[in-house]
Amino acid sequence: MAYPTYQARAEGIDARTTEYGYGIDDIQRASERLDRSSALEGFQLSQNFKDTLRRIPGAFNQRGMLDSGQHQRARERSYGAQQMAQMGAMTSQEEARLQLDRQRSMLEENLYGGLESDSIANAMRRFTLTQALQGMV
User: 3-state class of 47 per DSSP?
Assistant: First the structure.
């Protein structure tokens, strides 16, 4: 039964550690991009709705429509649409954060699972070596 040499195991550990480091760096950068895009999206949403609210009175400025209640209903619908858009944006941002957390968890699982496998292989190698030496004596 062939077991990897110390150097091969060390290279495996180094490769997993390097992969983990690059993965964590990628996740951190994605998180920062998500923060920036979330801030920009929030700003754009607020500006769009401010513009919409400014246009509403002009659309109802005919023959007493401002006082008829239609203007108030249009404002309420606009606020409702704003709330829905903000909720949708927050939901998508939260889902993106959950995905980043899942990726981080997978990276950690791969790293620690590989280290555990190396430890088990090392113990098996030592056990086999001990058994072989006891058989010789």
Answer: helix
- Note every long-range contact of 40-48, with CB atoms under 8 Å and residues 24 or more positions apart, other chains counting: 41/89, 42/86, 42/89, 45/82, 45/85, 45/86, 45/89
pTM: 0.61
The sign one gets for the Cα dihedral 69, 71, 73, 75 is negative
Q: For residues 69 and 77, give the distance between their C-alpha atoms in angstroms, rounded to a whole number.
A: 12
Task: Give the DSSP letter string of 75-106.
Answer: HHHHHHHHHHHHHHHHHHHHHHHHHHHHHHHH
Under the banding of pLDDT at 50, 70 and 90, the label for residue 91 is very high
